[in-house]
Amino acid sequence: MIRHIEIADCDLRSKIKQQKIRFGGHRKLKIYGTLFCKSGKRMKRENRVFFLSESEAVASDFRPCGHCMKEQYQKWKNCNSSGAEDDEIGIKSDVSLMALRYFNSKALRSSNLP
Fold it and tell me: What is the pLDDT of residues 89-104, one digit of tens each?
């Protein structure tokens, strides 16, 4: 991974021409895409990073861009959404169970049972 602020413009152009840089990414958002992506062209220089290959970007825990890499993004999203939904459901059910216990105990205390 090469940070944009650490490379001179002339070196960057030469690496792109030599195919030593093929993908760009956003350092903070951990998103990578093609060098021609409109979203990538709008990011700040200090947030931009470059990769030689897609595998280098994935190894650095970056995800594909949803604009310029739609197929890769959908594959990434489908692989990552199943686990997140399970966790989310588990959390919701735990919270619901806790709320149910709380309200039941409060109702029992407030009722005037003999």
Answer: 444 445 555 555 655 5
